[in-house]
Amino acid sequence: MDPLKRRFGTVIRKRRLEAGLSQEALAHKARLHSTYISMLERGIRMPTLGVIDSLASALGTTMGSLITELDRTAD
Amino acid sequence: MDPLKRRFGTVIRKRRLEAGLSQEALAHKARLHSTYISMLERGIRMPTLGVIDSLASALGTTMGSLITELDRTAD
Description:
The structure is a homodimer.
Chain A: H1 3-18, H2 23-30, H3 34-41, H4 49-58, H5 63-72
Helix pairs in contact in A: 1-5, 2-3, 2-4
């Protein structure tokens, strides 16, 4: 599995749970499909910058916050 | 034009010039095609997270640094 996708999925799942959102609720807020959120969290989809922007807005944070946290997960 | 893509392109062009790299040199370092770098800088392609990672490495910076700068370009 692509480590970058997996690391991103882990960050998104963590942030979603911290926000108290289900995958369905996050999907609705981000205008994405809940199946896609599930695939992102499992690290089997590579998000585009546009998806990252939508997720950040839906999670009430910035893209920079998400991606800086992602950087910290590097080996 | 999609403002997000345009803003990303502006950040990448600025960072590339600061690094003293041509589009061709950045493309080589990032293992991307120089035509693709040109399209990114002109805001006509939406990068994936994988491309952002490659660009950050090639520019000697972090994804978080690039994306935090991108956040600052928001209206």
